Amino acid sequence: MAEPVFRALEIVARVVVAASGSPLSFSGVEHIPAHGGAVIAINHTSYVDFLPAALATYQRRRRLRFMIKAEMQQVKLVNYLIKHTKTIPVDRSAGADAYAVAVQRLREGELVGSILRPRSAAALN
């Protein structure tokens, strides 16, 4: 599990949360499987939704492979992180490829994080 960029992010996240003076506490982490693939659904309410989810899975010694809108690859730093943390870019006009990658990651025993918007960006027809 040698992923140096991911490991550095885990350390930075824990330091930032500790320095904020508002420690995070989690309930229900026992429901995150210790092994095998699973989808973790996360309610999208802010730009840092991923942080508590990632830290909760970290408590279970697991890493979360997030799905992220492909447009974020245009931000150089974010694109670097996407490439080095097995994040799954989703082209919202043609998302089938991203879901194929997510299914493959699940078959490999990974946790896949899907951030869901309370009011979807996609129109329901």
TrEMBL record:
<dbReference type="GO" id="GO:0005886">
    <property type="term" value="C:plasma membrane"/>
</dbReference>
<dbReference type="Pfam" id="PF01553">
    <property type="entry name" value="Acyltransferase"/>
</dbReference>
<keyword id="KW-0808">Transferase</keyword>
<feature type="domain" description="Phospholipid/glycerol acyltransferase">
    <location>
        <begin position="38"/>
        <end position="125"/>
    </location>
</feature>
<protein>
    <recommendedName>
        <fullName>Phospholipid/glycerol acyltransferase domain-containing protein</fullName>
    </recommendedName>
</protein>
<keyword id="KW-0012">Acyltransferase</keyword>
<dbReference type="GO" id="GO:0003841">
    <property type="term" value="F:1-acylglycerol-3-phosphate O-acyltransferase activity"/>
</dbReference>
<dbReference type="InterPro" id="IPR002123">
    <property type="entry name" value="Plipid/glycerol_acylTrfase"/>
</dbReference>
<dbReference type="GO" id="GO:0006654">
    <property type="term" value="P:phosphatidic acid biosynthetic process"/>
</dbReference>
